[in-house]
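batch job 7 of whatever, protein = Cytochrome P450
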Amino acid sequence: MTQEAVETLRFPFTSSHPLLPPEEYARLRAEEPVARATLPNGHAVWLVTKHADVRKVLADPRFSREAITRPDAPRLLPVAAGSKSIFVMDPPEHTRLRKLVGRVFTTRQVENLRPRVEELAEEMVTGMVEAGPGADLIEHLAQPLPITVICEMLGVPQDDHDLFRGWTDVMLSVGHRSSGQVGAAAGKLRRYLEDLIAAKQRNPADDLLTVLITARDEDDSLSTEELLAFAETMLMAGYHATTSEIAHGVLTLTEQPGAVRRLAEHRGELPAAVDELLRYSQAGGGVGPIRIALEDMEIGGVGIKAGDAVLPCINSANRDESVFAAAGEVDLTRTPNPHLAFGHGIHHCLGAHLGRVELTVALDRMLTHFGEFRVGPVPPAELGWSANRAFTRPDTLPLQW
């Protein structure tokens, strides 16, 4: 690739199919694994596309997440200046907050939640059965399951779940909502959480929000701003990411001949299948994890200067042919599977095990009730997709069984 071609790259790229990565990724991995590109706001960024280089960027403390909160920092998603979200923290603040909340997301704690996830999924899939063939997976399962789980963990009343869905839908719009609309939604969410925290101070409950309030009030290990930011991050990431992964996973399965039937007959293969669906998925779009270099360094033989913005393209890394044999194909029994769908390093997703549990349980309940299923009556090619979400998914996903 010529230097001129590299300098005219515009990111995000478009794809010929929502389940496929942009063609530019394969070309960049082969010709220019660390390439200069321009974001919609005009800022320059280094795109890192190979698995080994992406892992390095994700794990290297010389790449800062916190620096993207500066007012003039390059970004693809709205990030408030000075944000105290764990998503954009660097050590030592990130280490302190992750240690505080991490105990809620241990494998043991998440496994304790599995019966509740199974109960919810059973109710929701039963609702699809009652609605009959053509029922919308998004409406009946992919959307309500993760938002119910995350709201119950935080202690958000059932009647308010739709409020959160509406606010976070606006906040994670990309290039579709005005800054005023995003700001208004963020303000409503913030005020709601402030009122909810005040209510839980008066009447503590057995939920994560009460745990965080106690940490703030009793041992001063958490500020009010950090508490609010963590609750907001949990709601957005725990809902949107999982909803999109369920939709992408189901669509991918239905496009593999015989895959649904095989999983229905061999449930023990579900864990490996879920990891492969996560590797293959394009739900994240690669539009969030920008880092800022804190010093001059080198990635993939390319010099990166202090202050440069670097975007590790996880969706590209997960299709790296040097790591994954037949990377462009779905292998539901693939092992090992070192995908980076949940990130890597200190920012490895806190909810990774919970996300796997939700996706596994959702598929298991569908296989139990439906046996085989397919998209319909609307053909997959005619599904409507929103191009303005940080986590892509079809607007509706009707199924036949």
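notes: The mean pLDDT is 90.
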